Amino acid sequence: MTIPVLAPTRAELRSLLSDRSGRVALVPTMGALHDGHAALIRRAREEAGTGPVVVSIFVNPLQFAPGEDLDRYPRTLSADLEMCAEAGADVVFAPAVDEVYPGGDPLVTVDPGPLGTMLEGASRPTHFRGVLTVVAKLLGLVRPDVAVFGQKDYQQLVLVRRMVSDLCLGVEIVGAATAREPDGLALSSRNRYLDADDRARATILSRALHAAQQRAEYGVPAARWAAMKVLSEDPELELDYLAVRAADLSEIPDDLGDCPDGVEGRVLVAARIGATRLIDNMALCLGAPATPEGGS
User: Fold this and answer.
1) 127 labelled catalytic
2) CA-to-CA distance for 244 and 252, rounded, in angstroms?
């Protein structure tokens, strides 16, 4: 097991990567790492080969709106370093806020455009501006060849890919499958907010998404209806959104027309379970029979 080197400053990060050789892989995180993050690091190790794997741990204040959980977001650096070591990271970049944003909030930020105003963006209007700004900064600081993101934050993944393409940043973006508990709950750092009762209730999200997958061959309305039927089983659930979209998150018409091979899509959900807001999504093929594969 390789013990990763901790770099709390830009200068130390730059020094550690100055004699880099091979492909450099980056895994951006906010810490509070779990097995899903470990899977991302292992994927980065595969992508980098003998090159360095860099994991960033930074709770980015720019992506939290007033009243969100910035102050109580879990910070577990010691445990995170152990997980990084076990998963194969070489460098952990864990900067303070003023190291990432010297002089306060940046005057220049990344506008996510129309895609940043829907779904998560409708509920959290400033969120993706903060996400894309910090990702752009991390890509500039690390200069990776490849960066690995989880598909659980699917809208984030789509936006990061679009930013990299539109701004010609020259980084390969890899989307890794969502890691799940045996009962289907998507792994998330916010799961630790759930008490035992809410933890049991939270499985309704993945069950709803699976239901949408099973009805996707009958089109968008059927997939949406199947998911909503499951969600209605919990009258205390506070649904934010349930959406069936194309893989690029564009709208799909209810009438798919003649698509013998189906249309690649995504079903996405956000809901509050007790005091905790959770998101999840799964891939589906609209207009084609469901396959046994049920993950995202």
Assistant:
1) no
2) 8
Q: What is the pLDDT of residue 175?
A: 98
- Other CB atoms within a 10 A radius of the CB of residue 199 amount to 18
Q: Which of 182, 162, 181, 183 is nearest to 173 (CA)?
A: 162
The rounded distance, in Å, linking the Cα atoms of 75 and 189 is 10
| CATH 3.30.1300.10, the chain: domain bounds | 194-286
Q: List, for the chain, all residue ranges whose pLDDT scores fall below the cut of 70.
A: 1, 257-261, 290-296
pTM for this prediction = 0.93
Burial class (CB in 10 A: 0-12, 13-18, 19+), 43: buried
Task: Report d(CA 273, CA 94) in Å as an integer.
Answer: 31
Q: Which CATH class is domain 5-176?
A: alpha beta
CA–CA gap between residue 188 and residue 168 (Å, rounded): 31
Distance between CA atoms of residues 28 and 8, nearest Å: 14
pLDDT of residue 287: 85
Query: In whole angstroms, what is the distance from residue 228 CA to residue 243 CA?
Result: 10
The vertex-144 CA angle with 140 and 146, nearest 5°, equals 130
Query: Which residues in the chain are classed under CATH 3.40.50.620?
Result: 5-176
Q: Collapsing DSSP states into helix, strand and coil, what is residue 163?
A: helix
What CATH number is given for 194-286 in this structure?
3.30.1300.10
Catalytic residue among 34, 37, 127, 210: 37
Check residue 293 and give its pLDDT: 47
Contacts of 74 (CB under 8 A, 6+ apart): 31, 32, 189, 192
Q: CA-to-CA distance for 282 and 177, rounded, in angstroms? A: 10
CA distance 54 to 156: 20
Q: What is the pLDDT of residue 169?
A: 97
